[in-house]
Amino acid sequence: MKIVIAPDSFKESLSALEVASAIEAGFREIYPAADYHKLPMADGGEGTVQALIDASGGQRIERTVAGPLGQPVQGFYGLMGDGCTAVIEMAAASGLELLAPQQRDALHASTYGTGQLIRAALDAGARHFILGVGGSATNDGGAGMLQALGARLLAADGQELPGGGAALAQLDQIELSGFDARLAQSSFQIACDVDNPLVGPHGASVIFGPQKGATPEQVLQLDSALRHYAAVLERQFGQQVAHLPGAGAGGGIGAAMLVFLRGSLRPGSDIVAQAVGLAEAIADADLVLTGEGRVDGQTVHGKTPIGVARLAQRYGKPVVVIGGCLGSGVELVYQHGIAASVAAVSRPCTVAQALAEAQQNVRLAARNVAALLKLGQGL
């Protein structure tokens, strides 16, 4: 029996590889001779770098870069086993979790550090990039990233703009003579599970600005600044991005990636699945096991278990998901190719206990799934 194990990480407790190993350990108690294939997964958010370097035999490379407000932070990127594919989580340099709640400043937060990680990966020889854009603290339309890559964003008086989305209201032109020439020979995939436009009622500022510290007045200010930014991009480069689906991802970095880096937007789980060869592994599998920290109604919106189930449906393979817990709306996953869902936590406990016991809980849950499967085969 061939079993494919393709889970996401459990936030704050287990990496995707650790989850997969715990599931395998539980299943081996019942099916010791099965053929197990572990493929750590992610959806473009936290854990994407680790999942892809684990799957490809790559390495994690740390670099000190500018944080969202210019403070030095220890960022990182992954270089996959092929030596030419870099995986970058925007949150590692420009993330919301790098700031305390009282420090959040959507007007001035910049993606400069994300651009520094791209440049560092270019120096290491990478020419293909996978960029996860979740969890950003920024609303600058990717302007800081462009500046780190050598672009100059100029006001009407010729002065370069400071960092942050608010400054884009003063943008007059973008000067690209110093833009890193290696980018022209590079390709970019943007792991993006949202289709928000750059501006408007569903745009970056209105939908995501408040969680990044923007007041209602600042949301309007940022939306206006991004509208002006979009108008400059259209006038200077002939590209309309204001209402382009996905342009609002990562505080508008999607727009900059599309215009200046010729990026393609794809669901993060699809990008990771392709990179690890998930479809090929599932094609002749007997069972597919996946998981994430919380399985609920949000899981159907591009999360890893649904991406895995979508591929499994293509080949007619059954899928079981093991979650750290099951939440409201979990029944929706059954409409998307998942046969059963199981919670790893089997008793009342604190969050701290659940995190500390995650590996043991996942192993036991997997063992129980395997035992029920074997029992069913014997009936």
From TrEMBL:
<dbReference type="InterPro" id="IPR036129">
    <property type="entry name" value="Glycerate_kinase_sf"/>
</dbReference>
<dbReference type="InterPro" id="IPR004381">
    <property type="entry name" value="Glycerate_kinase"/>
</dbReference>
<comment type="similarity">
    <text>Belongs to the glycerate kinase type-1 family.</text>
</comment>
<dbReference type="InterPro" id="IPR018197">
    <property type="entry name" value="Glycerate_kinase_RE-like"/>
</dbReference>
<dbReference type="Pfam" id="PF02595">
    <property type="entry name" value="Gly_kinase"/>
</dbReference>
<keyword id="KW-0418">Kinase</keyword>
<dbReference type="InterPro" id="IPR018193">
    <property type="entry name" value="Glyc_kinase_flavodox-like_fold"/>
</dbReference>
<protein>
    <submittedName>
        <fullName>Glycerate kinase</fullName>
        <ecNumber>2.7.1.-</ecNumber>
    </submittedName>
</protein>
<dbReference type="GO" id="GO:0016301">
    <property type="term" value="F:kinase activity"/>
</dbReference>
<keyword id="KW-0808">Transferase</keyword>
